[in-house]
Amino acid sequence: MGTCPLARPRLSWWQAGLTMALVAGGFFAGTQIRNELEIRQQLKIPSTRLHEVAIQLRKQESRRAALEAAVEELRRQVAALEREAAERQIAAARMNRRVSELRALAGLTPLEGPGVVVEMRDSPRPIQPGDDPNKTILHYTDIHGVINDLWAAGAEAVAVNGERLIGRTGINCVGTTILCNTKRIAPPYTVVAIGDPARLLAQLERPGGPVEVLRAFGFPLRLQRLERVTVPAYRGTTQFVIARPAGDDGP
User: Fold this and answer.
1) Is the model's pLDDT at 103 over the cut of 50?
2) Is the pTM of this model over 0.85?
3) How far is CA 214 from CA 2, 128, 135, 137, in A?
C-alpha cells in the first residue's frame, strides 16, 4: 500500500492581507526604532529629553511663523508709508510751483524775456537867461507817461532804474528828486519792460504819445528792442499792517 503526499496548507485572502499588514507594520516600526536609536547615538541626547527637544522645536517653529507674519506686516506698513510720502512730495511740489507763480505775480521773482529798453535823459539844451529850467529836466509825469504806454501795450513786468514796479509802487517827486518805491532815482532813467517787443515799440512810437512829445522838446530818448531783458524782483516791503483780506475775521 502506497503513501499519499502531504497536502500544502493554503491561506485564505484575509489571512494573506493580515499577514502583509503585519509585515509592513513591523517594517515601519523597526525603521522608526532604528532612526530613533541613530539620533540618540549621533546627538548623544538621553531618550528622556527627545520629547522635550521636540516640544522646543515646535515652539521655535511657531515663533518663527509669528515673526514672519510680523515682518510681513511691517513690510506692508513701510509700503503704505512710502506711498504716503510720495503723495506728500507730489503735493509739496505742486504747492511750491503755485507759490512760485504767486511770487512772480507779486513781483517778488526776477523775470526775463523779450522786451524793450527805454533810456530817457534830461534835455542838453543850454538854459538861456529867462528860461524855465523845469523845461529841460524830466519829471515823474514823463516817466509815468512812458510806463503807462508800456502797460497799455501788454507789458508783463516793468522796472525803472532797477526798481521793480508792482501794485504798491509809487513814482512821484520831492522837489527835484524823483522817487520810485521810496528810492531816489536820477537820470538817465532806464525803463525795462518784458512783453511783445513789436507791440511795445508800436505803442511807444504812436503819434501824440509821450515819446513823440518829449522828442519834440529836445529830450534825448533811445528805444531798444531786445530778445532778452531782465527785470529784477521788488525789494520793498510786502507786509500789510492795517489791510486784511475781506471776510477774514481772524485776530
Assistant:
1) yes
2) no
3) 163, 19, 10, 10
